TrEMBL record:
GO cellular-component term (any): cytosol
Sequence similarity: Belongs to the NusB family.
Superkingdom as given in the UniProt entry: Bacteria
Record's signal peptide: none
Segments forming domain NusB/RsmB/TIM44: 5-144
Listed name of the protein: Transcription antitermination protein NusB
Key words, A-Z: RNA-binding, Transcription, Transcription antitermination, Transcription regulation
MF GO annotations: RNA binding
A UniProt-annotated Pfam family: NusB
Amino acid sequence: MVRNTAREIAIHLSYELSFTDKPVEELLDERLTPESFAALAEEDPLYQETPNAKQADYIRRLVRGVADHAPELDGYIAKYAKGWNFARIPLVASAIMRVAMYEILYMPDIPHGASINEAVEIAKKYETPETVKFINGILGTFVRRETAE
């Protein structure tokens, strides 16, 4: 499994956190199992390969980070979502931006451009072209205004 696949799985799990009452650790423990991946692989090729320990750690770090920093990340999204009411932003788009912003703020080993590019590529699979442009614009503005890079 490559990092962009692990990132996309982290986005799926972050999205799922938006509408579950399960604690983040319980969700991760349930979803990051060979059995769960085998069941999901029938519906989505993304789950064909179970993550190894390093990939699972990366997914866990992202999903935990998004859960722990959700109010902060949502604040940034709302701040840069010019002309959009936060409640109107699709949950998948929010999950994509939260993961990218978490990487940008808290994972200095990942280049900001890589986080943005991967977010945009993943968004193309799930969102309308208008929403993809919206995500790209928010993340670009966020990096320019909130980071020293």
